[in-house]
Amino acid sequence: MTDDVAYLSATELLDFYRSRQISPVDVAKAVYARIEAHDSKVNAFCFLDEEAALTAARESEARWQQGEPRGRVDGVPVTIKDLLLTKGWPTLRGSRIVDPDQSWEEDAPAVAALRRNGAMIIGKTTTPEFGWKGITDSALTGITRNPWNTQVTPGGSSGGAAAACALGMGALHIGTDGGGSIRIPAGFSGTFGLKPSFGRVPAWPLSPFGTVAHVGPITRTVADAALMLNVISEPDARDWHALPYDAADYREDLQAGVKDLRIAYSPDLGFVDVDAEIAAAVKDALGVLEGLGARVEEVAAPFEPTGPTFLAHWACGAAQLLRMFSEEQRALIDPDLQEVAAFGEQISLADYQDAVAVRGALGERMQRFFDRFDLLVTPTLPIPAFTAGIEKPETMAGDRWADWTPFTYPFNLTQQPACSVPCGLTAAGLPMGMQIVGPKYADGLVLRAARAFESARPFLMPDAPREPG
Questions:
Q1: 102 lies in a domain?
Q2: Residues with catalytic roles
Q3: Does residue 465 lie within any of the structural domains?
């Protein structure tokens, strides 16, 4: 048992609850002690309710003492990204224009599923305004920082979730991913993040960015992500995009390994300039998978650059979002989001339909690609984390966050499962991530490969935020 129960995984906590060695109340107090000690340095949370968490912990403790736990995650501490509705708590979406003084009577599907299964909800984690970009800051909640170096970004838009996860401020964390927003902060923060197949996790209301947006877990272990996916994939009639519920247990095949799996490796997708340290780390990680029996084949370019296609979808979503607000309200919105929305307003119906057609062709191409391969591996990101509070590195060409995330958003377009697995630290001590992509609906296979790598290369976590100098 670790000296700090806040760092125990969800699966470990459940074992200790079952044997009555630890109480959910102990865990709630430990998690809040870490929040009190460390959150001021990283700004992972935008809403906390310690009394509600302790009440839930006491109720969970009573159920465990009676031998009648509720569901799969009774008493496990979880956090909710502040894009998802949470009954009784405001969901401000990182924006000054959302009125907190209204009735908050609904849980989003993933939140409802966690609550049904006994989860102890700790609080809500930070997001940029409406989750629109790949870093985490907003005029409402300020700048969220990376636990490995508080001068740099943890990524986004689920940056608060990833920072909380890395520091033991909860075991299970809900993120969203409309272009990389789970995998980007997982890659920058040294955590594990999974974007499930689109529709695997019911979502309601649908993201303003439409069918590129997914809901999924950020955790410290692959097993915890599998456990969490079992819960949040439970059916919810409010999402008409959701996949048919298959009641799969994503933990079943976690230990099956990668022997004889056909893994395509694309170091740069044929067009990405990748930092040398990251390129070397991912190549070394492929060697680990080969050592475990996988058959790895390097491929040059699985597809053409997809930036314009993604931007058409994303910018039109931003334009549609801002149409809901008055001119006075729009003046309070992040100026860069206003700029993206203005670009979206200029996209004609014909151009948008062309982008939809290109997206369809990409999806078909990737389906055919996976006739030959079981998995695709790439870097998660081409660069390490950079200065917090700016949308892109000062030295990088391009205008927007998507210019430095070319490995993540293609698989939002294709709706395939994809995860980020930590694969080392740079010389400066910043995490690097390897992305594992599976065929559509092969979420279990992605988790299985990630678990095989994790078993060979266990993940590191910081014990406290690291402040340079």
A1: yes
A2: 81, 157, 181
A3: no
